[in-house]
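Interim report to the steering committee. The following record documents the input for Nuclear transport factor 2 family protein (146 residues).
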Amino acid sequence: MKTHCFLLITFLFISSVSFGQSEEEEEIRRLEKHWTELLDQGDTTALLQIWSENYVVNNPNGKIVTPKDIIGLMKSGHIFPAVERIVEEITFNDNIAIVMGKELQQPASMVTNKEEWIPRRFTNVWIKTDKEWQLAARQSSRQIMD
């Protein structure tokens, strides 16, 4: 019995080291996916819960927008194009998680061929409050291809 227990603990330890993801990193990855799904669904109520009160975005057009601006767009019928996000790095500093990576945005022509999608780079900043992580800031810009 002790041997089985020891093997199980060893396996779990090796698995966690191998995958290298802490619980917090797994949570941030889940939230990254979740808030993108909420944006796709147009769920403004749930988005306002995930975004911090002072959430701010520097969008790919170089305009700084707030939740009020984004919700206003959504309520006026604007549909954000689909985005596929690839998280490349998550860095933690105390109660701050910085997420960086690349994303592909479906162009306005709504083509489904992902090779024609617009490549962008992004940085998302999450802050952990007493209870949960909230998205505090985002920057996204078109990726210039070499």
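The radius of gyration is 18 Å. The committee is asked to note this result when reviewing the revised timeline.
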